[in-house]
């Protein structure tokens, strides 16, 4: 659900960019950053800091940084990059869910 919400907010931010609606773009990107931050907070780095979790944490941090940069630079390609990364992560989690 969170990942879908993140993808929705990124799509809405792209639409706002296209319309030159700076205020809405900022709101949607801020919400996307918050969602990715929520995913990041869900990682249990304190109790079981595996290499995979550390890498996932770094990926989420990178996504948040790129979203902020996309907002500052008004860059839809950066939003597309983050959306692609989020889709890849979502597909991985979806695949795990179907195996279990």
UniProtKB/TrEMBL annotation:
<dbReference type="InterPro" id="IPR036584">
    <property type="entry name" value="FliS_sf"/>
</dbReference>
<keyword id="KW-0966">Cell projection</keyword>
<keyword id="KW-0969">Cilium</keyword>
<dbReference type="GO" id="GO:0044780">
    <property type="term" value="P:bacterial-type flagellum assembly"/>
</dbReference>
<keyword id="KW-0963">Cytoplasm</keyword>
<dbReference type="GO" id="GO:0071973">
    <property type="term" value="P:bacterial-type flagellum-dependent cell motility"/>
</dbReference>
<dbReference type="InterPro" id="IPR003713">
    <property type="entry name" value="FliS"/>
</dbReference>
<dbReference type="Pfam" id="PF02561">
    <property type="entry name" value="FliS"/>
</dbReference>
<protein>
    <submittedName>
        <fullName>Flagellar protein FliS</fullName>
    </submittedName>
</protein>
<keyword id="KW-1005">Bacterial flagellum biogenesis</keyword>
<comment type="similarity">
    <text>Belongs to the FliS family.</text>
</comment>
<keyword id="KW-0143">Chaperone</keyword>
<keyword id="KW-0282">Flagellum</keyword>
<dbReference type="GO" id="GO:0005829">
    <property type="term" value="C:cytosol"/>
</dbReference>
């Amino acid at each position: 659900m969170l990942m879908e919400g993140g993808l929705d907010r990124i799509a809405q931010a792209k639409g706002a960019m296209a319309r030159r609606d700076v205020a809405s773009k900022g709101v949607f990107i801020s919400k996307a950053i918050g969602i990715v931050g929520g995913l990041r907070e869900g990682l249990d780095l304190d109790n079981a800091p595996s290499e995979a979790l550390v890498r996932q944490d770094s990926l989420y941090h990178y996504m948040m940084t790129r979203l902020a940069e996309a907002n500052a630079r008004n860059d839809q390609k950066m939003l597309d990059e983050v959306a692609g990364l989020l889709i890849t992560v979502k597909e991985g989690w979806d695949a795990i869910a179907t195996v279990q």
